[in-house]
Amino acid sequence: MNGDRAAPSAARSLRGAYSQFRQQIHEGAKFLIVGGIGLLVVLIGSDALHFGLGLGKFTSVTIAAIAATIGTFLGNRYWSFRHRQGAGARSETIMFFLLNGVGLLIQCACIGLVNDLFGLTGRFWYTIANLAGAGIGTVFRFWSYRKWIWVPPEVHLAKLRRGRHRKGRPAPATSPALGHDTTAA
Q1: What is the pTM of this model?
Q2: 175: helix, coil or strand?
């Protein structure tokens, strides 16, 4: 009998957790799809450039990462985080590429660590180091995009209010139904 009551309670708990973290789950899933495509571009591209064309290991990963960054910016901006309010196209783009630069440095550090410090070279170890760096960089990117680029609309609105208040302007009025600034800027 007691086991029969536990199942509905567990289901309610699971539904409650899902509803609490629904947005993060959906954003994370979309981010992983976009990032997975970008990861394939980086791994295949850097491998082809380094071992196929003979470019340096860091040059190869940098070129491949730039190509992937363009695609992931578009995918994340217009799909993964499309409902979040950014600071504007120019600011979003600059921040996105800067944060991706940090992710690329993490990736290069992993390659340097495995290939140069540990002396593990060759295609297999290059790919493993590249993959490890991309994984660590991905965690950093997901956190940083949500923190600094595509913030929830209410956070963006609060920043606008603080900025206008400090400059002596009235805080923007909001429409609870619309959830956005209804004053003319």
Answers
A1: 0.68
A2: strand
